[in-house]
Known about the structure:
With 325 residues, the protein is mostly helical. It contains 12 helices and no strands. It has 2 domains: 142 residues, no CATH class; 166 residues, no CATH class. Helix 1 packs antiparallel against helix 2, helix 3 packs antiparallel against helix 4 and helix 7 runs antiparallel to helix 9. The termini are far apart.
Amino acid sequence: MIVRASTRFVAAATFVLLLAGALVTSTESGLAVPDWPLSYGQLMPPMVGGILYEHGHRLIAAAVSTLVGLQVAVLYFFAKDRGLVKLGALAFGAILCQAVLGGLTVIFLLPPAISSAHAGLAQVVFALVSSIALLASPRVADRSLFDATGVARLAGELLAARKLAILAAAVTYVQILLGAVMRHTSAGLAIPDVPLAFGRLVPTPEQFGLPGVPIHFAHRLGAVLASVFIVLAIRKLVALRAVSSFFPRLAAFWSAVLVSQIGLGLLSVYSQKSVPITVLHLGFGALLWVSAVLAAVAISRARAGVRIRESAPASPSLAYSGGPG
């Protein structure tokens, strides 16, 4: 019980940290505090203006980093699966690197490369802690969530669904990185209209020469490609209802997030990058990415259960078929 509750709390807290980081970027508060690790040489500066967002983000980051570290201890003492301890340690190492990258963004005055790497690593941390929360669920851990007959019957479908989930995760992650580069190069409104681009399907060569247009258009193309792979993966998940009701439920959640994310992407341009819209756009992008990761993790766990059963030795009563003498 303590493992399940604590890992879910850490995953939720990490998502809040992502939103806090998006708020810093969306309000252009990244340099509201010019020094690091202190803030104006203090542990707690006046929380006004952009300092509220930037230093607030640092406080949340410190709290979440502590939680991720404590999670390693919880997993070590209470989790039966030793693999979770390794995942927990990996998540803790990743969030410490994330903190260093956050400091470097301030020290070097928000260089796009470091800022984008900071955003990309944040998504990796979120995926790690979310995967830990899923694997720490008792029904996933003992594989009772998955129907053994359904897994055996749909072995081919499971493999295809896993491949599509991994592809969807990879494409979505690249799309997130493109979005990060777009944000940190101030290219969010480089193309002022949507769904067209300067009133055309594809900008002219002259328009591609304008600042920010190539990365913005690449982000739009990435959104289309990611949506295609996500829809294909969702269809495969729905077909796995005989394996577990978890898969169609995840598919429904993933579908709702995808529709919302498309709408938020359109609104971010229509609203001229309204702060609430852009923050939600980043948050839903993270949910798209982690849904793909969790789909792949859950399918792998279901398939592993079959391999374990197939490799288990037969009981002596079944193995012996002859009589005495």
